[in-house]
Amino acid sequence: MDPISPLPEESLKKKAAKGFLWGGLSNGAQQVIAAIFGVVLLRILEPKDYGLVGILTIFSAIASALTESGFVSALSIKKDVTEADYNAVFWFCVLLGGGIYVLLYTASPYIANFYELPELGPLAQFSFLNFLISSFGVAHNAYLTRNLMVKERASATFFAVLISNVIGVVAALQGLKYWSLVLQNLTYCVIVAALFWYHSNFRPSFQINLKPIKPLLSYSSKLVITNVFFYLNNNFLTAILGKYAPVSQVGQYNSGNKWNLMGQSLILSISNTIIQPLMTEVSQSEEERRIRVFRKLLSFISFITFPLMFGLALIAPDFLLLAGGGEKWLEAADYLRVLAFGGAFAVVGNAFSNYTLSKGRSTIYMWNMITFGVLQVGLFFALKHLGVFYIIVAYAAINLLWLNTWFFITRKSLHYSYWFMWRDVYAYALTALVGFMATYFWIDVLPHAVLRLGVSMLSMGSVYLGICYLFSKDTFVEIQNFFRNKV
Question: pTM for this one?
């Protein structure tokens, strides 16, 4: 078959510019919708409901990574892509997804026995349909990604988030409990896959030929390993806690971590319109300009990340008190406070990891993710006798440590010194911490949670912006002008 004709260069430039805008707006809107409906679900559901679903997340996430097999990225960078390539990827993903689903379906009773939770069996068999459904949209997702159809992808995921959240809330109101969370996730997968089909010009045929898969696997295999460990790192604690802690406590942790990840995603959606073009410039610029461009990127990310994540830690108790309609989620607030501190450094570390990938050092990235995951597992078994809270504290400390690991990996190719690291990252973290402490020690004197929440954000924000203006006026004004120009 003939290669699918590439888009004209002018069209690519326009699509890229629109893509950054649509991607940022869509991601931000999705986080807002998820937050609103998440608050509603907090009031309806119990910690046990979140705990049961959280335990199963790691199985679905790893299965999804194996089913996708890195083909979206592999097809995006392939020089010439034909209908045969897309068709091979489609059938490979569907067949692999079907095989993995049969294995996990069969293993579901054993998973329930392992956790000593009988309700996990049928819940798992229904929940694991998510990655099987998603497998039908992998090739179409690759088509949209390769052709820079970001607007189409953004609209698909936006409507999927909106409709799935509505269905999840309706199901919860009907008393379906933890089933409503699974139904919400499956609805999202169905709508995304269907809309990817709708927007894509590719249609699979029944002439199944998997030979085009072989050259793609040489690139995608490392991505598969990396993605598997990425999901392991993000979901290991929830999964293992199901064995060693009450399921309600797992739900408390899962809920706190959900808001932590949502906060991180919101920040990334704000900065993604800047990260992508700047990372391209860093990769292609002259040596003497590379460090200047990267420092601007890092300063921008640090400037918005630390006050927002530390601010989330500050308001966590009052936020979950109000969102949950009472005190049933206050344990989750303790977890969220620590997770948000660690999450801030994870977001900043993302800039270093993206730079590593932009230089083609995917093997280093892969081994870094594997080492991080092994360290998390070791820390859990070393500290599990102390309880969940201290394990989370240790995990937050790992995120801080791993930011320095990324620094040491990239410092030579960037000619990036630790003094620059202090100026571009830790100065903002310290400033945000001062704003946090300047509010934390007196805010409890206010009698009402709504008042405390509003005053906390105003107080910490004022202290943070004031210090930034006094000690880093040039950077402050530059970022201010950037936002003004964007608006």
Answer: 0.83
